[in-house]
User: Which sequence fits this backbone?
């Protein structure tokens, strides 16, 4: 802007005394559209990003602190449930030993219940290998023990494998006692071997809910009738406390035995087992039963001769 424009168009010499002309600088506008951008404040943006990360971490920590109690509670509940299962299993085992000891004394009672435990562990191992959920072994004084399935096996063949695993390992345990007796361990080892062979042989009776009944289901469920007759014969020939167990067993199984003769059972996919696998199961079943019977007789004779 010229001095004349600043004085309203009057020449400077005509202005009153003391009047000063001040030159005002005009701002220079930034060009638009030439691709030039204002300088960015990288430091400010870095600080903002850092503050955001800190805030995110603080939020996570706050959530963790908030739910820490709930997580610890869930973990504690899990361990409490595991401890409860172990306590139930071990407590029922100790109770069985104590009750059996009132009849046969502590040494035999302890060995006898441990042989039952070995039998049940055969089932537990087979169930674990197959990935089938089940309970821990639960001991029932004067009756034995059981492992409750939480889901059914996919077919009769796998059920037979799980069922025979108990008598297989149990008979092996009885054989160990038998060998210790042969090596001079004393009469108690023959007595334990005889008892171990017997309980596994009895469990191989082909009637449900015994292990033998679950094994022969892969051969033919109709064989349960044979096991039922065998159980009744045993109850008549050897009367005693075992009759109560057999009565309970028959009460639990007679409906399934009757259903085995229903036409639908013959076509049920659950019982459709290939012929070759049936042969393998039959050989294992009858072979194990024969071995347990021979061992029972030999151990009983050895125990009686001392």
Assistant:
């Amino acid at each position: 802007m010229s001095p004349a424009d600043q004085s309203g168009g009057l020449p400077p010499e005509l202005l009153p005394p003391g009047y000063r002309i001040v030159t005002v600088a005009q701002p220079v506008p930034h060009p638009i559209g030439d691709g030039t951008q204002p300088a960015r404040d990288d430091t400010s943006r870095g600080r903002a990003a850092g503050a955001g990360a800190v805030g995110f971490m603080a939020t996570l920590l706050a959530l963790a602190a908030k739910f820490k109690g709930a997580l610890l509670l869930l973990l504690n509940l899990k361990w409490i449930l595991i401890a409860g299962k172990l306590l139930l299993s071990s407590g029922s085992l100790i109770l069985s030993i104590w009750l059996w000891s009132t009849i046969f004394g502590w040494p035999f009672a302890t060995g006898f219940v441990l042989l039952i435990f070995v039998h049940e562990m055969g089932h537990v191992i087979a169930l674990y290998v197959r990935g089938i959920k089940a309970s821990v072994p639960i001991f029932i004084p004067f009756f034995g023990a059981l492992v409750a399935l939480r889901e059914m096996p996919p077919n009769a063949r796998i059920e037979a494998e799980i069922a025979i695993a108990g008598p297989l390992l149990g008979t092996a345990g009885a054989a160990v006692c038998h060998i210790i007796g042969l090596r001079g361990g004393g009469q108690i080892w023959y007595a334990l071997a005889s008892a171990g062979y017997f309980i596994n042989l009895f469990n191989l009776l082909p009637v449900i809910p015994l292990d033998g009944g679950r094994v022969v289901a892969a051969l033919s469920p109709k064989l349960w009738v044979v096991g039922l007759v065998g159980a009744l014969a045993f109850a008549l020939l050897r009367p005693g406390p075992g009759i109560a167990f057999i009565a309970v067993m028959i009460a639990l199984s007679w409906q399934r035995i009757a259903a085995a003769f229903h036409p639908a059972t013959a076509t049920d996919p659950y019982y459709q087992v290939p012929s070759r696998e049936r042969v393998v199961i039959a050989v294992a079943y009858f072979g194990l039963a024969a071995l347990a019977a021979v061992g029972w007789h030999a151990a009983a004779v050895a125990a009686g001769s001392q």
Summary: The chain has a mean pLDDT of 79. The CA atoms of residues 106 and 134 lie 30 Å apart. The chain has one domain: 68-305.
